[in-house]
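Per reviewer request, we include the raw input and output of the structure prediction for the construct analysed in the revised manuscript.
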Amino acid sequence: MAMLKTLVLQAALLAACASAWYLPGTGPKDYHDGDNVEVQVNVLTSVTTHLPFDYYSLPFCYPTKKFRGEPENLGEILMGDRIKPSPYEHVNVGEPVDCLVPCGARSLDAAAKKKLTERIKDDYHVNLLLDNLPLAIVNEETGMYSVGVPLGTVENGVAYLYNHLHLTIKYYQLTPDEVRKTLEARRRKLGNKAPPKPTIDLDDDDLPTIIRIIAFVAKPYSVKHDADAPAKTCSHGNFSLQSLPPQKASDDHVVWSYGVSWEETNEAWTTRWDVYLNVQDHEIHWFNIVNSVLIVLILTAIVAFIFLRILRRDINKYNRLDIDPEDLQDETGWKLIHKEVFRAPSHRWLLAAFAGTGAQLYGMALVVIIFACLGFLAPANRGSLFTAMLIFFVFLGMYAGYTSARLLKLWGATSWMYIFATGTVVPGVGFGVLVLANLALWAKGSSAAAPVITIITVAALWLCVSLPLVFVGANVGFKRDTIKVPVTVANIPRHIPALPWHMNPWFTIGISGILPFGAVFIEVFFILTAVWLNRYYYVFGFLLLVFVILTITCAEITIVMTYFGLCAEDYQWWWRAFLTSGSCGGYLFLYCVFYFFSSSLRMKGFVPVLLYFSYMGLLSFVFFVMTGTIGFMATFAFVRYIYGSIKLD
């Protein structure tokens, strides 16, 4: 744990040092008058099917330049992004265009008509990129941006195709002083290759015009061009959106066209993502925080009462030198099972594997959230969040092995096969879900299906990096001294008396997860909405607060329930402690089921439903392991403390 704290501190220091500069790929890009601005295409997406398809799987125009996709990181590939050049090649700074036809009329056969109609009815959206900004449409009532432009619309059962996009690019023009600073920055960067004349001495009229792109929005139209002479209907003098009939998806030909307009704005480049990340209902987030804090305060009060009143009274009574031994014979409760409380649990290899991987997951979540709060995982860095999660999980395998080894040595089980289980049980479940989902996507022809080389890369990171690090950490853990416990274990197990119904382990485990999950479920709603409704989630400040509250709540509820169990002379607390806080994972899955049927997902088809429950089942399982580890570690420290505080023969 100390090593994990050191790693987090070092990461925070590095982030603080790096905050003075723009991160690679996220700095502003300057454009001059007449510069060509590249427009790229991404996959077609739908919140109904959640099956992305390649942009060029439909009969769009092709670009004239060399056709190759952009290099993508591991996170982008696994998230389904496939960025390629677009046919919108004549987008030049300061040059408005009413209508341009990137290619001639495209003939539509029966298969193409059927595919277009199906995609429109499934509410697929076209996704374009310009200067790393996603294309969006603006809600005129709220001013909010919605990513992607609909492929078409359905009216009276007829599918109409949006074959004309009018692109509006908002830009900020640098002031003369800002231009001078920008040119001087370039001069310093060039060094000896810089021009001899200092740009700071130039007059305002001699300075070049420099702009930075702030927003990229579009308005779609359905326009039926003349298939025989599309350039004629699209000419500046004849083009009129109102005078042309709409384009049906069932027509024999389609002509694609687009227009471009430029609008100056006073908004700063640093705030251009705010309209995408603008979080509505801030009050709900704060209500969740206040509600969670109240839960923590109540649990803290209960724990404080146990420590300051009951435990102190019991410990002082038990440690009195003048106490009559006959009085102890009538004692009941946690003190009488001191010879049993550290007896090794059943299936200790599995508990050690869960606890080790849970520590790994907790470290990964904490570090990733901190980095996201510091701005290192901004949405401008596509795929960076998923890549960071994967990389941190892989390299924190050493902590998983170390934690498991320390527990296994305490329980007298130092087999390396148990360490192998630590590195394979939970990651194996995750990899299995990835392969299952990939097969389903491949069967549907979705572009989200990861290439074989990507699956091999993920497997190599797991088996060739993470698993060896697990063994390295375990080797360090086995070499450390055994964790000291205050009492030895009796040779013969003590009989556990019959427990009242309200202390039945399964009953207490079932109800204990309500409070921790209640502290986070509102944030879970926003995360699910962002993931499944194609929105951005970037309120990592709230998420960090909720994560801290979740940690405290899991620790305190597990300590309280374990104490009640020990008072009932039930010394089999190891698994109970893990499952008590781990039951949050069960409630998370139940909430995911509720969200599926009550939200606006509108999923249809077997594969989308399979993907949803596969991913949500994996998320719930991972949440179960992580929260279970939080409660388990906190309870272990609590039990060692209270039994170390009494005098034992």
